[in-house]
Amino acid sequence: MFGGLIASVVALGLAPGSAVSATGSNLLSNGSFEPSLKGWGHYQSRLSRVPDGIVGHRAAKVSFTTGTGSYSIYTTPRPVPGRARSARKGRVPSVKVGDLLAARGFVRSSVPGRQLCLQIREARSASVIKTAETCLAGTAAWQRFLPTRLTVQKSGDAVDLLVYQRSPAVGDTFEVDGVTLAKQPPLPPPPPPSPSDPKILSAGDIASCASSGDESTAAILQLNPNLPILTAGDNVYEKGTTSEFGSCFEPSWGPFKGRIHPTPGEHEYFSPGAAGYYAYFGAAAGDPAKGYYSFDIGAWHVVALNTNCRAAGGCDVGSPEEQWLRADLATHQTRCVLAYGAVPRFSSGTTHGSDLGVRAFWQALYDYDADIVLAGHEHLYERFAPQTARGVADPERGIREFVVGTGGRGHYPFGAPVANSEVRDNTTFGLLKMTLHANSYDWQFLPEAGKTFADVGSGTCH
Question: Kind of pairing, strands 148-151 and 158-166?
Fold first, then answer.
């Protein structure tokens, strides 16, 4: 059922049966399942030991039995049992506030494309108070999770971990091996920001012959020479034709074309194959059959997404773009990552609103510790607190989204604020200006002349 074992071992740089070390002492007594399944429990599943483990001769096989939502293998009893239980049982492992824990492990799936996650949980008494997880799309070959990191909230709390699969079906199984949980040394303080660090400008929903808003935002571009410009879709209205680019985009934003790193929106694809868009921007738009690409700005890795799912061949788990995104992020292991494209995962706007269609992209970005996503589509400005792909606030590893559909086309209404929305405005055209430091970032909304709306702040990379 699982092919390519030897090839996957070689690709991971391991000899079959070799040990995997963790930074610090491994808090798990049986993460390789060599002697038994002792120390592990199961939820909506059954466990068995199977041959051909990647770090030893055995691995744990987790087989879905019945239920909904997910099935899992988890540590029991907890490897860090908590203050009260430690005192009662005389156990040594304990954590204190600020400790950094990291979990690693290997996994492979009987059904490629299933989402598998490695999660650390911090608990107080019977309540889970914090979680951190890393997910990947399963394959038949062994894969190693990126480190899952959790910073302890309170001394004496309990800690455990689990590996689970979402949305199981009858017959689903996955295998786990080489699981470690260890304390890590604290991260070094980041270097101080430099005034010479690179800056970028961004907005989407830009030019129309029926609006003068793009002339207002073009004036802001003129005042900020030489800065790269990241466009978040719908560069020109109404159908992204060659004529519209020439008559409506070129007079205002055209003089800055050499600085633009574009992404397409739905209006570009109102012309078959977004032909006008790719003809106008040329090589800067990437492969016309894809519309997505990546590049670096200073110490940052930047990913341009095509959120027109049908045109790009899908946006779901296992789609060509999602697989490319994960491979690209795995190749570019920079401290700071920014992604941008037309469609926002989250929005309080009522014209389009939040879009589940890009959740797989968000999950990949979250799994690889991306920091920022810029989007348009809704003709308004909205900033969100860092959150997961499912909309759960996560100040440590969450992605901060900016919806910057303020390029000039028009304004859309807001509904009730959705979770984690922090700042909103739908009265002002303008651009988002970001300074990309080596380990942090600053943002500033630049309003059109005569308007006073402002949003300024800073954040730290993961």
Answer: unpaired
Q: Residues with Cβ < 8 Å from 353, sequence gap 6 or more?
A: 347, 378, 415
In angstroms, rounded to a whole number, what is the distance separating the alpha carbons of residues 16 and 56?
7
Identify whether the C-beta of residue 229 lies closer than 8 Å to the C-beta of residue 259.
Answer: yes
Q: How far apart are CA 110 and CA 204, in angstroms?
A: 41
Amino acid at 57: H
| Phi, psi (deg, nearest 5) at residue 324 | -60, -45
What tens digit of pLDDT does each residue of 306-360 get? 999 999 999 999 899 999 999 999 889 888 999 999 999 999 999 999 999 999 9
Tell me the residue type at 59. Answer: A
Separation in Å, CA 448 to CA 83, 91, 245, 457: 57, 63, 22, 19
In order of 28, 218, 372, 402, 450, the CA distances from 378 in angstroms are 48, 20, 18, 11, 22
pLDDT in tens, 187-230: 677 677 777 899 999 999 999 999 999 999 999 999 999 999 99
Hey, what amino acid is at 202?
S
The two tokens of residue 302 are 């930047």
Sign of CA dihedral 239, 240, 242, 248: positive
Reference 378, options 271, 270, 265, 240; nearest CA is 265
